[in-house]
Design a protein that fits this description.
By secondary structure, this protein is α/β, with parallel strands linked by helices. The protein has 9 helices and 10 strands. It has 2 domains: 110 residues, 3-Layer(aba) Sandwich (Rossmann fold), CATH 3.40.50; 148 residues, Heat Shock Protein 90, CATH 3.30.565.
């Protein structure tokens, strides 16, 4: 099968710049008219690679791309954007994005870009049954500075992998939920006050990962009436973060007047009947 990728051109001018840098390899692109078409291709099983060209990566809808990935788990995404901060770059990488390309573009080889996913190597082999014989606890107290987030997420994700969690959990769900929780604590809890700290503590074993993220803010009360999937809220700038965490983790609750978020991810999916019995969704 010849190499090809679907192109969703949200920003026409940026798309022209990107295609010019591709040269002859731009012939591999198959244009789509809407994000809904990409969902359709995923549902039909024909989606393997997608390129989205958008002015600002923050405009891309996380819920939409998760819906795409649920229909086509192996789908690869390449984001082309003029603007993308570190937080957005982390988010799209955790969601399965191969990278974010920003202009000015040098000569690009589309097939090489999609083949550039980094391989993870290890000096020592892990033992698949080791997690059943122990547990690990961790605790960090860091300033309200986003630069600490990737390192913490890296450690927790590696621990989840070593304790036998599923690939989707340690590669996507846990990192994305933890990133979102710490980011919220820094931005909304501590209001980016460098004098205030964020505390991340937890425990992981062969059964579950339990994490608490605590800030030193004034606390808050969650608006349970806000539904980010309501059509009237689809373009709302706020309200998706907590919904995202809740959809990624098995349990989530707030304590200490909203200053602490507690999350649980189980190493093995909880049976539907058991989840329903305890009132879970």
């Amino acid at each position: 099968m010849a190499f090809e990728a679907y192109l969703l051109a949200v920003d026409a001018e940026l798309t022209r710049e990107f295609e010019a840098a591709l040269g002859e390899s731009r012939e591999s692109l198959r244009r789509l008219d809407s994000a809904a078409q990409l969902l359709t291709q995923a549902a039909e099983g024909s989606l393997l690679r997608a390129v989205v060209a958008v002015d600002d990566a923050a405009r891309l809808d996380v819920v939409w791309w998760r819906a795409v990935r649920s229909r086509a788990p192996q789908a690869q995404l390449l984001v082309v954007a003029r603007h993308c901060d570190d937080e957005m770059w982390r988010r799209w990488t955790l969601l399965g994005g191969l990278g974010v390309l920003r202009p000015p573009f040098a000569a690009l080889d589309l097939e090489a870009e999609f083949a550039s996913e980094p391989a993870i190597t290890a000096m020592f082999r892990r033992h698949p049954r080791l997690g059943a014989h122990g547990k690990t606890m961790f605790r960090y107290t860091v300033p309200s500075d986003p630069q600490f987030i990737p390192g913490i997420v890296h450690v927790v994700a590696i621990l989840a992998m070593e304790f036998g969690f599923q690939v989707d959990d340690y590669a996507t769900s846990i990192p994305l939920a933890l990133d979102e929780a710490i980011s919220n604590a820094i931005k909304h809890g501590n209001k980016r006050d460098a004098k205030k700290r964020v505390e991340i503590e937890g425990q992981v074993d062969g059964e579950s990962l339990r994490v608490k993220v605590r800030d030193e803010g004034a606390g808050f009360e969650r608006d349970l009436s806000h539904d980010p999937l309501d059509p009237t809220n689809l373009l709302a700038p706020n309200g998706r973060g907590l919904f995202l965490i809740e959809s990624l983790m098995d349990d989530m609750k707030f304590t200490q007047d909203g200053r602490c978020i507690e999350m649980i991810k189980r190493a093995r999916p909880e049976p539907v009947a058991a989840k329903a019995a305890r009132g879970g969704r």
